[in-house]
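User: Run a structure prediction on this.
Assistant: Running it now.
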Amino acid sequence: MRLQTKLVLLMCAVTFTLIVAMSVTFQLMWASSYKSQIGSKALNLARSVASIPELKRAFNDPEPSVTIQPLVEEIRRQTDAEFIVVGNRDGIRYSHPIPSRIGQSMVGGDNGPVFAGQSIVSEATGTLGLSLRGKTPIYGDQGDVIGVVSVGFLIEDINKEAYRFRSTIIAIASAALLIGVAGAAGIAGNIKRSIMGLEPEDIGRLYQEKEAVLESIHEGILVVNHKAVITLVNQNALSLLGTEHKSELIGKPVLNVLPYSTLPDVIHTGAAEFDKEAILGDHVVVVNRLPVKNRDGKVIGAVASFRNKSELYLLTQQLSQLKQYADGLRAQTHEYSNKLYTISGLIQLESYQEAIDFITRETNSQSDLLHFIVKEIPDPIIGGLLVGKINRAQELKIKLVIDEESTFKDVPPSIDRNLLVTLLGNLLDNAMEAVLNNEGERLVTIFLTDLGQDLIVEIEDNGPGIPPEWLDKIYIAGFSTKDGEKRGYGLSLVKRAVDQLGGILEHHSVPAGGTRFATAIPKRRRDIV
């Protein structure tokens, strides 16, 4: 059986199923809508009756039903309601379609909310059978509830009206089915043309070619479906994940394989993530995560591509430098705007000497800082990073100080600047975040030295410090002492960077409060044989 014949049969079956489903759905929707309209009609009619002044005054008569019964019966006949019942605060009827039931208690058990002041639509079984009721309170001159109006339509009559359209729906569905069958052949032919006349074996060959292309991609590729279950993985991804066989991953929830993966978030939000740094086994990788959508725009899965970060160093070195400069300029621009406003204010207050002193002080301070960094830390990537972090600290009202004895001139070209940026940037971010909640001074100090055979980096903050029970956990990926999801990667990335540089990393509590992180990076790797 050729593909076109199969498609015709398949589309006929699908068309039949869809038409039946649509017909049933349309009937249910129409019935629900009609029922809702009847409920609204009953409630609106009840409110209209409850607002009639003559009816309210009748509650003070010795026999209220004498006035109320003929009044509401006339309204009931004109509106085709099954019943309009008026009752007092005790639920005693003052009107009813069957006069002999006047003076008896109302039934149905749904008057409670009405006597509490609510207007409701409910289904209940009364003396006339199961009905859809609109109920509203009657208010006296003092604003208190003195009675209730209940307008009802029998459910049996509503269902009869809904089922009256069944024959019409069936006729329309049958006609649609015939049209669908007639059009299925044409659609199948169009599909055949759309797939270039390919037969199933041709599609299978294309699938194999796709697999070959996937394996030739240098990045690791991992695909999950809408349930975040792994459906596809290439060989490079297996290598980075430390496994050899796809069967060990295919069909497993991605969180069982990568506990901190954000692919489920991508599926939920539909938002792509680009160039995110993460830890995968023993590797620091750069990850892109994108949602997979069908033609209707619905997210049906997600794909992650990742590559070992060290392999991207040559491509990202310039970008890292430019980004640090951009961050520094952005923060510097913001800070300078504040200072210009200050100078403008001093001039408008005619405090000219104070304005001159402020300009001189700020100029000297900034000039001294830039001169110090250019002289003692000439590497543009590290210097740019420090300028950006200093300006960012000023925005956060944090005092970030570089020790005057610092010098970082002898940084060998063989040392990966990207790893140094990861190390310095994450340690500084961690220190600044630690002091954000300080009520007093927020202080972070940096000491850099290249004297001897090692590059020494020390960063100290005066934050609350690290509790003793967490000291052995802070380098674990995903562990964080702060609230919030997707945290706990900064220090883990620092540890990975130090390990890749062949250095050592230590942390100590400061007696006056806070934490000091110190690392020593050898200028020449000790582990090279």
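The chain has a mean pLDDT of 79.
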